[in-house]
Amino acid sequence: MTGASPRASPSPVAGLAQTAGHGASGHPPWASPAPGEVLLEARNIGKRFGGVQALKDVSLTIRHGEIYGLIGPNGAGKTTLFNVFTGLYPRDGGMVLFCGAPLNMASPHMVSAAGIARTFQNIRLFGNMTARENVMVGRHVRTHAGVIKAMLRTPGERAEEAAIRRRADELLHYVGIADRADDLARHLSYGDQRRLEIARALATEPKLLALDEPAAGMNATETAALRGLIEGVRNDGLTVLLIEHDVKLVMGLCDRVAVLDYGEKIAEDVPDVVRADPKVIEAYLGAGTG
Amino acid sequence: MSTTTRERIGLLLVALALIALPFVLAMAGTAWVRIANFAVLFVLLSLGLNIVVGFAGLLDLGYVAFYAVGAYAYALLASPHFGLHLPFWVILPIGASLACLAGVILGAPTLRLRGDYLAIVTLGFGEIVRIFMNNLSSPVNLTNGPKGINRIDPFQIGPLNFSASDTIGALVFSGPIKYYYFLLLVLLAVILVNRRLQDSRIGRAWVAIREDEIAAKSNGINTRNIKLLAFAMGASFGGIAGGMFAAIQGFVSPESFVLNESIMVLAMVVLGGMGNIWGVIAGAMLLSFVPELLRYTVEPAQRALFGKLLVDPEVLRMLVFGLALVLTMRFRPAGLWPETRHRRELDENRA
Ligand SMILES: Nc1ncnc2c1ncn2[C@@H]1O[C@H](COP(=O)(O)OP(=O)(O)OP(=O)(O)O)[C@@H](O)[C@H]1O
Ligand SMILES: [Mg+2]
Questions:
Q1: How far is it, in rounded angstroms, from Cα A283 to Cα A55?
Q2: What is the pLDDT of residues A96-128, one digit of tens each?
Q3: What does the pLDDT profile of chain B (351 residues) look like in tens digits?
Q4: Taking 80 as the threshold, does the pLDDT of residue A16 lie above it?
Q5: Could you list which residues have their CB under 5 Å from ion ligand 2?
Q6: Is the Cα dihedral A98, A103, A108, A112 positive or negative?
Q7: What backbone phi and psi angles, to 5 degrees, belong to A267?
Q8: What does the alpha-carbon distance between residue A143 and residue A140 come to, in Å, rounded to a whole number?
Q9: What span, in angstroms and rounded, lies between the C-alpha atoms of A49 and A32?
Q10: Is A136 in the pocket of ligand 1 (CB under 6 A)?
């Protein structure tokens, strides 16, 4: 478990945004925007659970190539916003534009095909599959072989399987857990499980990588390695959306930060401005966290 | 998968044993060849159900319905009932397709259900199919109701009739022996297909759904289609087995497709080790042969020991069956030969 040194290896992620892979799976509307252009735009998102207004009129824009931080006290609605973006929850109102095209009532697998990949706050790996198999599952959406081809083991299917496996190994190496490839996911250490989730998400060839508290439960060394990994992912051309409670990590890593409080966006700016915003300070002090 | 010389020799010996088996069994009586044939049929059923339950993790308690669809398809298309006598190689694919269709019909409305709820709905489906077979005798006599369909054609390949005996040299190839070899070929094909599916993109998607459906969805798996595919594939295997059952038996009636049969096949999958092809095969063999062995040994043994029959073999059969399941679940909860993944997990827990 060496620390991640993403840029030391030939990056399997670099150039993902440029590959033709996305077009191949038949969803033309999501052409990749140029760096600095809007990648994801959320307009007036609302979400209510019974009596709880988890999200209220949330609008934000994430630009291509940036690391965008999403912070807020516990229960502010951060995870809910992820779930709305990725199609796990239907939203009550508003719209989401991704690469200029609306993600209307898209189901999770379609969101994944469009190019948004995510990790989960409470890690959700395929516990009884090996680390490699977990990442191989991530390739599903970019590959094609069906039942008939698998039963006949056609040359095309075999080549695709070999490519899936190769890419999985590259990604395990990329996130720094190549030596755990044959271990069951459930037997990995906590930090390695978080990395494995990132590798699996990267396997779907996303344009936007959304991470829900990836540093939760990590020690200082692991957090530093994670930071290197996230920066590496961005340098390889991906956009990162990051929910994180570790304020130091967020402020040091993100280009822009949005703050949610009771389901409302109360600030959105570069880290230094957000840090000094009285509303933000009050939200955090009021919630008793920091 | 590196096959060493030792493994090759092992496989060769197993193959020779399987080829010689029916003649050895025939010495004990043709009944034993028939028992072997039914054992292979149950192995086929278990392998089909394993796709749904073992791989995709969808608890299906109505699996025998697909067996019934295959069997009735064969019976209706190759018997005097409608006067149709299509060859088996036409009917088996038709039966498989119809069963596949039934699988999709069952799968589509149950996609949102899991665990207990799915089990109850599939159980209902199994019963509905059986009741249909029981009642579709009027106003149009489709299934001949509880009386079932008789005089079903045996397999016929050119001049080779599967209901008659052929003698080649000193060897007598009785009907059941011919069916045995045919079943063995089908079994080989099914094992091959299963193993290939298991190590494929689709197979991984099935296991991913079993492990965590939300994570599977979020990582780009169209869980609806992939689950339907599991139902459809499992059902097709059931349909093929059903067709062969009809031909071997020469007679089908709704009685052969009761809930008990579904439970028996599920028990074979669970006992052997869900998800592991070889475990499932072993489970099916055990639960097919051991009860028969008991049936043939318990009565003579009691008469020899006590001079009279104390316990009916049928009662003892169920007793032993229940006990075996309880003990397995107590001491080997993942089955006798669990999937490698589970085995690794158990080993590590013990260490
Ligand atoms: N499935 C759900 N059903 C009902 N209420 C929910 C559901 N998911 C979230 N909520 C509620 O919505 C609100 C926002 O929750 P959410 O998980 O989005 O917060 P969060 O910002 O991610 O918090 P944390 O930092 O603790 O992860 C909370 O009040 C929560 O109880
Ligand atoms: Mg959260």
A1: 16
A2: 999 988 987 679 999 999 999 999 999 999 999
A3: 455 788 888 888 988 888 888 888 888 888 899 999 999 999 999 999 999 999 999 999 999 999 999 999 999 999 998 989 999 999 999 999 999 999 999 888 888 887 788 889 999 999 999 999 999 888 888 888 889 999 999 888 888 888 878 888 777 788 889 999 999 999 999 999 999 999 999 999 999 999 999 999 999 999 999 999 999 999 999 999 999 999 999 999 999 999 988 998 998 998 888 888 988 999 899 888 888 887 788 777 878 888 777 777 777 777 877 888 888 888 888 888 877 654 444 444 443
A4: no
A5: A 79, 121
A6: negative
A7: -160, 155
A8: 5
A9: 34
A10: no
Measured CA distances, A41 to A12, A67, A273, B188 (Å): 27, 15, 22, 54
Write out the two tokens for B275.
Answer: 């998800």
**Which of A175, A183, A209 lies closest to B218, judged by CA?**
A209
Q: Is the peptide bond before B300 cis (omega within 30 degrees of 0)?
A: no
Of residues A117, A124, A153, nearest to B214 (C-beta): A124
Find all residues with CB under 8 Å of A96, minimum gap 6, and list them.
Answer: A40, A41, A42, A43, A45, A84, A85, A102, A103
Q: CB–CB of B129/B65 below 8 Å?
A: yes
- Residue that the structure tokens 């934000």 belong to: A60
Q: Which two tokens stand for residue B186?
A: 């089908």
| ipTM score over 0.90, yes or no | no
Confidence of residue A11 (pLDDT cuts 50, 70, 90): low
A244 CA to middle of ligand 1, Å?
A: 15
Q: Which among B216, B233, B342 is the nearest to A147, CB-wise? A: B233
Token pair 């496989």 is found at: B11
Confidence of residue A33 (pLDDT cuts 50, 70, 90): low
Asked if residue A78 has its Cβ within 6 Å of ligand 1, the reply is: yes
Q: Mind listing the pLDDT tens digit for each residue in A130-149? A: 999 999 999 999 999 999 99
Q: What is the 3-state secondary structure (H, E, C) of B149-204?
A: ECCCCCCEECCEECCCCEEECCEEECHHHHHHHHHHHHHHHHHHHHHHHHCCHHHH
At A244, phi and psi to the nearest 5?
-155, 140
- The burial class, CB within 10 Å (0-12 / 13-18 / 19+), for A107 is middle
CA dihedral for B270, B275, B279, B285, sign (positive or negative): positive
Cβ contacts of B22 within 8 Å, gap of 6 or more: B33, B36, B176, B177, B180, B181
* Smallest CA separation from ligand 1 atom 8, residue: A80
Give A55's strand partners. A47
Q: Which of A126, A140, A146 sits opposite B220 (nearest CB)?
A: A140
Q: Given the structure tokens 């291509």, which residue do they identify? A: A64
Residue A2, classed as helix, strand or coil, is coil
As given in the structure block, the two tokens for residue B63 are 């699996």
Query: What are chain B's domains?
Result: 3-350 (1.10.3470)
The chain A residue lying nearest B191, using CA atoms, is: A151
Q: Token pair for residue A181?
A: 């490839």
**Axis-axis angle for helices A131-138, A190-203 (nearest 10):** 30
Please indicate whether, in this complex, the C-beta atoms of A120 and B202 are within 8 angstroms of each other.
Answer: no
User: Chain A partners of B222 at a C-beta cutoff of 8 Å?
Assistant: 107, 109
A43-64 pLDDT, tens per residue? 999 999 998 999 999 999 999 9
